[in-house]
Specification:
The protein is mainly alpha-helical. The chain has helices spanning 4-15, 32-47, 61-78, 81-95. The protein has one domain (4-22, 31-95). The chain has four helices and no strands.
């Protein structure tokens, strides 16, 4: 049976493959809805990093920061920064 530690080692190996740190250009055309959802998923995934025995558990803080910056850049390009902040505030108010 495969354990979380085994999965962690596989992810770490994949992330260490030569060329994985190379920059690639990706031309995407996605809706604002998808950008907003992607930002939310990335944020939640980063928050849950410690609970995950998978890929995110093995990612460096620098890589997580890069991922968060990418998410923020997508929001900026889509013109959704202010809307996202308001939705986040509303969501936090509901939790209280």
């Amino acid at each position: 049976m495969i354990t979380k530690n085994d999965v962690s080692k596989v992810y770490d190996t994949v992330l260490s493959i030569p060329g994985m740190s190379e920059v690639v250009k990706i031309d995407l055309k996605v809706s604002r809805k998808i950008v907003l959802l992607l930002n939310h998923v990335i944020s939640k995934g980063i928050e849950m990093k410690e609970d995950d025995g998978g890929l995110l558990a093995n990612v460096s803080e620098e890589a997580l920061l890069d991922l968060k910056n990418l998410s923020e850049e997508c929001l900026q390009k889509a013109g959704l920064v202010e809307l996202n902040q308001k939705l986040t505030t509303l969501n936090e108010a509901c939790k209280s």
